[in-house]
What we know:
The chain is of the alpha+beta class. It has helices at residues 2-26, 35-42, 45-95, 128-131, 176-185, 199-212, 226-235, 260-270, and strands spanning 99-101, 107-109, 116-118, 124-126, 151-157, 162-170, 173-174, 217-221, 250-254, 275-278, 283-287.
Amino acid sequence: MRAAGLGILVAIVALAAPVTLLAQTADPPSTSTDKPATKPAVKPPGKAAAAKPPAAATKPAVKPAAQTAKVNVVRPPQTATAAAKPATAAAKPATTPGTTKVATGRAAPVAHANTQRTGRYGAAVPTAAAMSPYAPPAEKLAPPPDDGSPRTLTFFNVNTQETITSTYRRGGQYVPTELQKLSTFLVDHKSGDVIAIDPELFDILYHLQRKLGASSFEVLSAYRSPQTNAVLARMSRGVARNSLHMQGQAIDIKVPGFTPFQVRQAARELQLGGVGYYPRTGFVHVDTGPVRYW
């Protein structure tokens, strides 16, 4: 009996051994020893860590390239412009010897010694080229012949509200006392200064009066002191800094009963001096300078 029982036990053990071996061969994928082997395959921390550094490395590589492109595109034109300005500034004095450069960047004309002539009344009169770039190529005509008859003018000064009638010429000769009265009448009303007015200016007005058939003139401005003219020049572009008003050789007038256009046309036909037309303010400028129109 014991032998039979021992044989059965041996048989059971023999049968159990293959089952255990099969269990050991089938279990390894699920055992704890396989986990370290499968983790590197499922979770690739090494690959992610290796992929991130290249991305971080590429960003700095792109940014410096963009910064370098901006510097190369923007700065070289600025350098070229800065280099070109001194060359332009240096070239201007060579091309414009008759001008001087001022702080505003514009060129101011320099007065030359040959830009003035001596008028009949002894005052220096700028030439047509120096006074106006719009001067036409017209010669100053000789005044109409004097027949010896008296020449009388009537003025109304709109600034002082005074009126004067004067016969300034008789028998082909000027009357000094009457010229003095007219010069005092045509005072600079702002400063009170008086200057001897060019008698040729009265002659132009006399011929203009006869041509129009007028009887009197309204005076807006005659003599201007240099200080008054400088103030007006700063206030208006229409006031010349070298105006003949400062030399007693110009007058701004209105003629009652005639339009500024009619006065301008008659003054221009005389060709005895400069004629300026100001339709907005309704007056005409007349002077004893060179023949020119504006």
